[in-house]
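User: Design a sequence. Structure:
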């Protein structure tokens, strides 16, 4: 799809836990950000872009995932994915098949409900409004979008309806039926 410039601006990778959805999404993100494919259908693995993506630190790669509110955050702070980026990178560097339970353990809770909040969609909207740092694609990878609260889902829907230039959304879901029908109608299901 990407090689033939027929890439949808939003894709939904769905299936049961352990089927490789996140691994595939991470690989696609790397492919889209790396511009040095050397005629192959894969990232080169050796350029600066690939090096940053392999560490999951590329400025044009944005991760969204369920978060919790820690007591150390203060009463006014609204948790966003960026608050847990070190834990996220550590987890996906370990393996690309994490479970929700592993994520909860990684961020230090087993009894709190983790969600994706409206503050997250505001943060994502702000990040995606900027030009790509390398001039190529910006990739927004959203893990477990079914954990979005209603306000977040509505704000994400607006982003999907009017995507920023050269932005690709990759949603990785285990329960796609939990997403708003309007979101499901605006993504290419894979």
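Assistant: Done.
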């Amino acid at each position: 799809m990407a090689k033939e410039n027929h890439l949808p601006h939003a894709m939904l990778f769905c299936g049961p836990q352990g089927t490789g959805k996140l691994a595939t999404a991470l690989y696609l993100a790397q492919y889209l950000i790396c511009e040095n494919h050397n005629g192959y259908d894969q990232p080169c693995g050796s350029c600066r872009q690939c090096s940053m993506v392999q560490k999951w630190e590329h400025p044009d790669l944005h991760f969204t995932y369920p978060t919790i509110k820690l007591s150390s955050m203060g009463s006014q702070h609204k948790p966003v994915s960026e608050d847990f980026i070190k834990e996220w990178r550590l987890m996906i560097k370990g393996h690309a098949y994490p479970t929700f339970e592993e994520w909860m353990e990684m961020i230090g809770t087993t009894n709190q409900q983790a969600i994706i909040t409206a503050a997250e969609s505001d943060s994502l909207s702000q990040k995606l409004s900027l030009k790509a740092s390398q001039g190529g694609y910006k990739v927004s990878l959203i893990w477990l979008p079914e954990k979005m609260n209603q306000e977040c889902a509505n704000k994400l829907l607006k982003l999907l309806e009017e995507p920023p230039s050269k932005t690709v959304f990759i949603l990785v879901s285990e329960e796609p039926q939990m997403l708003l029908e309007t979101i499901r109608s605006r993504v290419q299901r894979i």
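The beta strands are 10-14, 61-64, 138-143, 167-173, 188-189. The CA atoms of residues 138 and 167 lie 5 Å apart.
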